[in-house]
Amino acid sequence: MPEPTTKIQKILIANRGEIAVRIIRACRDLGIPTVAVYSEADRTALHVRFADEAVNIGAPAPRESYLRMEKIIAAAKKTGADAIHPGYGFLSENADFAQAVADEGLVFIGPSPSAIATMGDKQAARTAVKKRGVPLVPGTEPGLRDDELFAVAEQIGFPVMVKAAGGGGGKGMRSVNNRESLPELLATARREAESAFGNGEVYLEKLLVGARHIEFQILADTHGNTIHLGERECSIQRRHQKLVEEAPSVFVDDDLRRRMGDMAIAAAESVGYVNAGTIECLVDEDKNFYFLEMNTRLQVEHPVTELVTGIDLVKEQIRIARGRRMGPTESFLNPKGWAIECRINAEDPYNNFLPSVGQITTLLTPTGPGVRVDSGVYGGYEITPYYDSMIAKMICWGEDRAEAMLRMRRALSEYKIMGVKHNIPFHINLLNSFSFIAGKIDTMFVEQRFSMDTYEASPTDADLESAAIAATIFAHRKRQLASQVVAPAKRDTSNWKWVGRYERLHK
Ligand code: MV4
Asked: Same domain, yes or no, for 436 and 309?
């Protein structure tokens, strides 16, 4: 008997920028026509140019366009799209949107509204996964009175973290260092949570310091198959914006991967999860791991998993939404090599990462062996202030971590973006940092131990230890590869200088 399938003959992409382009590409590979939606500010955006059809959905502000469910559903109806891919951000983790799409007889390419709702309520998520034996950060149960919260805080010990049930991704969280400040911070957190998420519920967790942020990619089909595609190391971040991700993690050995992978599958199964999702964890120095939350969407950093597994995650999402079984699982279980992603943001790393707007006057995008660039921009494109500042992602693959890093350094040095400030100098310096090269990173690294002038400071004992580890890593590489290690980037790595040299050479 043939497998039951859901008809998907045209897909509307309810997003913009690089992720809309990424999804359109998967659709084109599958021979599925696409519909873009766009705001007034995005008339000339790349996703509009690449889609087969495009519908204007309103003013630039997301509340007037990309967050308007009814306009997006109307655009699908008008163009005859039978499925909607939400991408990440915007409506991607909105259970009401997933329900509204289904109510209109359209396919939501993602999990069920109930799975989104349960995982979206971070307390409900803790309760759900706990039933399957998933390890949680020690913390409070839902529905406690203040005196009960105080008692649990004493029991688990300070510092603790107050987290909003309706938050996530670092939103609505704050640390509490001592018992004296708890009552006031709790009250403030409730007020803020009520106004930010329309849900004043908060809970406490023990604050884990110096842990790594490691997440597992999950795929689940409608036939009861749930698998994981390994981990991504996401500790390189600043103010909860990830900047660099890699797969696998230097910290995860085969045994830890097996145990964390089993945990991630159990967490997804606890809510009957279907489609692609991510289990976020903290892992401490002793390799104890704890479930933090589940992201019920495709993530920005999904390409690092794609490059080490050979899986096209967007194709798999569509395949699953069609009711088909997942592809041959053996290929999922054989990750190969190493992948690193640098998020290219229009932000000035020399000025507190201040967002930069304006026209991209010149754009030269790297390519060559092991280089993938997922971009939402082109030369002449105007970057507006309405949306996030990520304009592209560069993902490099190598046989091992050293080769992936060397290719990333090569590609970063080729990347030329002029007209707006961008964070490529940050990435170049990061890839020259001893700690990063040695894999000695945690979630505090960028904010507390890295600066754009790191290479000018005298090295600390920790730096020297890292350098020794790095030297060992590089000693295992060919002399030819090691010789490509370039000098640390100074301020003169700006594109202006590069263009100047180019012109001198050719006059
Ligand atoms: C934590 C934590 C430490 N202890 N919870 C951030 C994103 C969201 N998914 C949960 N996050 C964290 N939760 C406890 N109990 C550390 C993080 C965290 C983090 C915190 C501060 C600065 C950067 C961070 C990066 C990743 C995770």
From this structure: yes
User: Active-site residue numbers?
Assistant: 297
Quick count: other Cβ atoms within 10 Å of Cβ 400?
Answer: 12
pLDDT digits (tens, 9 = 90+) for 383-435: 999 999 999 999 999 999 989 999 999 999 999 999 999 999 999 999 988 88
Domain boundary among 190, 206, 222: 206
- How far is ligand 1, taken at its centre, from the CA of residue 229, in Å? 23
Residue that is last in its domain, among 159, 176, 206? 206
Tell me whether residue 249 is in a domain.
Answer: yes
Cα distance between residue 137 and residue 161, in whole Å = 10
* Residues 56 and 161 occupy one common structural domain: no
- Closest ligand 1 atom to the C-alpha of 293? 9
Q: What is the rounded CA–CA span in Å between residue 292 and residue 137?
A: 7
Range of the domain at 92: 11-109
Residues 201 and 336 in one domain: no
Tokens found for residue 23: 């999804």
Domain holding 147: CATH number? 3.30.1490.20
In this structure, are 293 and 351 located in the same domain? yes
- Give per-residue pLDDT as tens, 473-501: 666 554 444 344 444 444 444 443 333 33
Beta strands 202-206; 416-418: pairing state: unpaired
- Are the beta carbons of 31 and 8 closer than 8 angstroms? no
Burial 358-385 (b: 16+ CB within 10 A, else e): eebeebebbeeebbbbbbbbeeebebee
Ligand 1 interacting residues, C-beta cut-off 6 A: 137, 161, 169-170, 205-208, 213, 237, 240, 280, 282, 292-293, 443
Of 234, 285, 292, 445, the one to substitute when testing ligand 1's pocket (max ligand atoms within 8 A of C-beta) is: 292
